[in-house]
Amino acid sequence: MTKFRSKKKHRKEMNVRAGEAYLPRGVFVPLPSLTFRAIVVALGLVVTSGNGIAGQADVVAVEASQSVDKSWRFSVTVRHDDAGWDHYADKWSVFAPDGSILGERVLVHPHDNEQPFRRSQSGIVIDDKIDSVVVKAHDNVHGWGDDFTYRLEK
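The structure corresponding to this sequence follows.
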């Protein structure tokens, strides 16, 4: 017995071409136009820009020296993609191992065009029994950044 094969080409389940989708049994569904897709992408960028994109403030370097009166002077380098007054690094702090704040430098304005930036604070009193501290930067949207552990050299 001879088997006959159909010479008809069977349609694929879905054929996408030039912004149109052809589904089985003649169902037609237009895909969004390129202009529409561009608008959706642009809106997504606008929504994610601003406050959320700058991320947290992080300490990238610390220097400290002890004064004659036994207090400490800290110079802290902070990195944060400040985005004006709505989202900027607003302080850094020095913490004891138990989490108590030993000292703090308030940053009174954004540093949009100065990244990373360094600021100092003197007069920080640290007990002689403490041999290392944690320094953290803070921003007015995300709060505290990652810990930066600094070993005190006495």
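Confidence is low (pLDDT under 50) at residues 9-16, 38-52.
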